[in-house]
Write a structure and sequence with these properties.
Blueprint (H helix, E strand, L loop, with lengths): L2 H19 L1 H14 L7 H13 L15
């Protein structure tokens, strides 16, 4: 295995570890999106819920990009 392949494997392991540590919150977001069942380009509750979840996780979230309210 060359150095690039080793690096890719290391990043994949880290990504899977992050997903595993956050699986409960990820499932909650998926359930909420399904529950809200909003039409395309009208996902107001879904967007609000997701933005808040990301902010609570420490992400800086910018909304309304390019004049699109839900972007």
């Amino acid at each position: 295995m060359n150095s690039t392949e080793k690096r890719i494997e290391r990043v994949k392991r880290e990504a899977f570890s992050i997903l595993d540590r956050n699986k409960n919150e990820i499932a909650k977001i998926g359930d909420a999106v399904f529950y809200f069942a909003e039409l395309g380009m009208q996902e107001f509750k879904t967007s609000e819920y997701t933005v808040e979840a990301l902010r609570q996780a420490g992400f800086k979230v910018e909304t309304g990009i390019s004049g699109i309210p839900l972007a």
